[in-house]
């Protein structure tokens, strides 16, 4: 069994990373870090995806935890890609970052997080970033 972290380098993703590391330690299990590649126009980080994911893997390794990195190509259905990875990994827990959205934003854009929360076959921890 594993802890699966759906990770994108955002404040919410980094908050979810912290929780995933803690849960992996508490459960004495392995982790899978799933990175769903974002379109280039959405990326504002000066770091490449490889540098970011290497740092994520190192965060687990520094604590003696095994973390496997899975990269998923860009997709129009991120929720389904995450749910498929949950099944493939046999995840006992899924950790996701959750961003704040207005009611109109949820209505117009749909809710990937909601689909994940309702569709996952394991418990889901949804983590918000700290407010500044």
From TrEMBL:
Pfam families: Usp (PF00582). It comes from the Bacteria. InterPro entries: Rossmann-like_a/b/a_fold, Universal_stress_UspA, UspA. PANTHER family: STRESS RESPONSE PROTEIN NHAX, UNIVERSAL STRESS PROTEIN UP12. Gene3D superfamilies: HUPs (3.40.50.620). Belongs to the universal stress protein A family. Residues 2-128 form the UspA domain. This is Universal stress protein. SUPFAM superfamilies: Adenine nucleotide alpha hydrolases-like.
